[in-house]
Specification:
alpha/beta
């Protein structure tokens, strides 16, 4: 049996800027303002940086894509403690797809006593069928019907083999056979 082809959707730089502007506008329209933007590595670092500049809010970064959990976990424990002191954090990622990353981060923050009212979540693209929800999203998709893999501007330089590997990491996301 041959592998199913993956459909890719490239996000233009202009669309990316519009998505950042959309999230910034949503944050500015509300009565909650973070003390720090937290870019989730790797995909949330670029949007987090742009949002940090746009909103004039300092940027912190936390790695997830390397799967060196001891590093990210220690930082999440620290942020949980700081949230108890009143600091507010807006976590930013590129996409809320399956919700695994957000669910993992939320659970670790909660286990360490974070004040959850001081933490919010923003993504460029959010899957409405995800197991995790976000506070701010520029675009919504439904993975039950939208089966394309996004190529964000910062991922445009990745090799086709790397894109393919990332897209196939969780075959159920795109309706692929395992």
């Amino acid at each position: 049996m041959s592998e199913q082809a993956i459909q890719y959707e490239a996000m233009s730089y202009d669309d990316f800027l519009g998505y950042v502007e959309s999230i910034a506008g949503q944050v500015e329209a509300g009565d909650w303002r973070p003390d720090f933007i937290v870019g989730i590595g790797r995909g949330g670092l670029v949007p987090g940086t742009y949002l940090s500049h746009r909103l004039d809010i300092p940027l912190l970064s936390i790695d997830h894509s390397s799967k060196v959990h001891a590093f990210s976990d220690a930082l999440l424990v620290h942020l949980a403690a700081c949230s108890k002191l009143g600091e507010r954090y807006l976590f930013v990622d590129d996409i809320n797809d399956s919700g695994k990353t957000l669910a993992r981060f939320r659970a670790l923050l909660a286990e360490n006593g974070a004040v959850l009212e001081n933490i919010r979540w923003a993504v460029l693209v959010s899957n409405i069928a995800s197991r995790a929800s976000v506070n701010y999203a520029a675009r919504e998709i439904d993975r039950r019907v939208d089966k394309f893999w996004f190529i964000f501007p910062w991922g445009a330089l990745a090799s086709s083999a790397a894109r393919e590997k990332d897209a196939r990491e969780d075959p159920s996301r795109l309706g692929l056979q395992a």
